[in-house]
Amino acid sequence: MSEFCYQYVVLRCVPRPEREEFVNVGVVLYCQESDYLDVAWQVDRDRLATFAPGLDLDRVVAALEFVAGVCAGDARGGEAAIRPLGQRFGFLKAPKSTVVQPGPVHGGVTADPASALAHLRERLVG
Hints:
By secondary structure, the protein is an alpha+beta fold. It has one domain (4-124). It has four helices and four strands, in the order E-E-E-H-H-H-E-H. It has helices at 45-51, 57-72, 85-93, 113-124; strands at residues 4-13, 23-31, 36-41, 100-110. Strands 3-2-1-4 form a four-stranded antiparallel beta sheet, with helices on both faces. This is DUF3037 domain-containing protein. It comes from Nocardioides malaquae.
């Protein structure tokens, strides 16, 4: 079985960027060789409500649904969703001043990008 290089970013909920505090809420994985781009996310509403009282949790979920739309290439991702996969990943890994922000880009090697994504989400998000 062939192994493929991939890149990923961890998506962070950053309610107050000036405090530089965050909670990991998702992972985006891109594998050019296997034409794969997807996100796996989980919002622990109780944890986020404790971490940032008053945070609009529906806004966090909406931001993650937008990311899912960009990855899937569907209407949820707006204009970004119609771009080639590499450009979509470039868009998603770029820093933004929203409540959900990408961390640094990391890499790895896998024979199964979907399994790698599931593993990373479990390990890094919970």
